[in-house]
Design brief:
Elements: H1 21-28, E1 34-35, H2 47-54, H3 69-79, E2 86-89, H4 91-103, E3 109-113, H5 119-126, E4 130-134, H6 143-148, E5 154-160, H7 172-180, E6 187-191, H8 209-213, E7 217-222, E8 235-238, H9 241-248, H10 258-268, H11 271-294, E9 306-310, H12 315-324, E10 327-328, E11 330-333, E12 336-340, H13 344-357
Parallel strand pairs: 1-10, 3-4, 3-5, 5-6, 6-7
Antiparallel strand pairs: 2-8, 7-8, 9-12, 11-12
Length: 359
């Protein structure tokens, strides 16, 4: 008799991360490899964070605050909401899992886009729920199509704005019109992981006001992107006190480690670093747009720190060719790749190598 596993696992596969830089160096005999594949901050993190982490080195034997009290209070003060409306997590990945575990039963329907953050669909399948996938329109969320997909079995809707991996966004007016037509017993998860990079004025910059009007909304943010804390795994979620209280019931007791809490608090206090990262990203994006235009490459307009671009050749083949030259990007679908916006020197090297592999 053999061991049996939950049947929901039959449709799932383990996450396959990209090769570490050191592995790529070793495989191809390279001295230097640049990674523009995971939307990491090319400027690193705030010097204030580095100093704060140094002061915590002697406390590694002590468990972190399981409630993340000071981090909750710092976030709440910044956003003018109650600490009881805030729940930190070990990155957005953990929160996506916890939301699915909190709300989904077998046969519940979950509405999401077809090309978006992949954890939305995998956690729905994990819970035995039914993913209802709505295709993007012009690489952007089709909110009208999502409304049409609603049934009496719909339990959860995932919105990623701006979207990963396409970098596109929908405007505040569209979001408000959408929320007005969603039943109050359907949970809408609004993922703002890349909000700090947005340049358009019609983006819903003040999403906190939605908490007052829509008790069924959950808003997710992260410290992994603009704040450069991807290695420490820390994100945060805002919702009604009732929702936060119930998600908290399944949260691990020390899910956000001590260093992550200290780093996140310090990161929120350095607006100068955030402004610098914003400008570097904007300049890099404009440079890459210009080069893609000169190369006659189609791309989606991005409001993030990455660009979704059509290289007109098999994305996987281009990925391998660039990797052999010491440049790691992310193949997405067909002939489309996603490239993170780096420093200007990294962006220029990427364009140089892309021209080489595209002849």
């Amino acid at each position: 008799m053999s061991i049996s596993f939950r049947k929901e696992l039959d449709e799932l596969s383990a996450y396959k991360p990209g090769k570490p830089i050191e592995d790529v160096k070793k495989e191809y005999g390279l001295d230097e490899v640049i990674k523009l594949a995971s939307n990491e901050n090319p400027l690193g993190t705030s010097p204030k964070v580095t100093e704060a982490l140094k002061s915590e080195i002697d406390n590694l034997a002590i468990y972190p605050d399981g409630n993340a009290t000071l981090l909750k209070e710092t976030i709440a003060d910044n956003l003018n909401i109650k600490p009881t409306q805030v729940l930190p997590s070990s990155g957005s990945d953990e929160m996506v899992d916890m939301i699915s575990k909190t709300f989904l039963d077998k046969e519940d329907e979950v509405i999401m886009a077809d090309i978006t953050f992949p954890r939305y669909i995998s956690t729905a399948k994990m819970m035995g729920a039914k993913p209802v996938v709505v295709p993007l329109k012009d690489w952007t969320y089709d909110l009208d199509g999502m409304k049409e997909a609603l049934t009496d079995k719909t339990k959860l809707i995932w919105l990623c704005n701006p979207n990963n991996p396409t970098g596109t966004m929908f405007a505040e007016e569209k979001l408000l019109n959408f929320l007005k037509e969603i039943p109050k017993d359907v949970v809408v998860v609004y993922d703002e992981a890349y909000r700090e990079y947005v340049t358009r004025e019609d983006y819903p910059h003040d999403s906190m006001k939605l908490l007052k009007e829509y008790p069924n909304i959950i808003i997710m943010r992260t410290f992994s992107k603009m704040y450069g804390l991807a290695a420490l795994r820390v994100g945060y979620t805002m919702a009604s006190e009732e929702i936060i209280e119930n998600i908290n019931k399944i949260r691990g007791p020390f899910n956000v480690n001590r260093l992550a809490q200290v780093a996140a608090i310090s990161a929120l206090k350095d607006s100068d670093f955030v402004n610098k990262c914003y400008e570097v990203n904007k300049e890099g994006k404009e440079y890459l747009y210009k080069e893609f235009d000169n190369m006659n490459l189609e791309y989606a307009p991005s409001e993030t720190n990455h660009i979704f671009v059509n290289v007109a050749e098999d994305a996987q083949e281009i990925f391998v060719k660039l990797q052999k030259r010491g440049m790691i990007i992310r193949p997405i679908t067909g002939t489309w790749i996603r490239v993170s916006i780096g420093t200007m020197s990294q962006n220029k090297l990427f364009i140089k190598l892309l021209k080489e592999v595209l002849n």
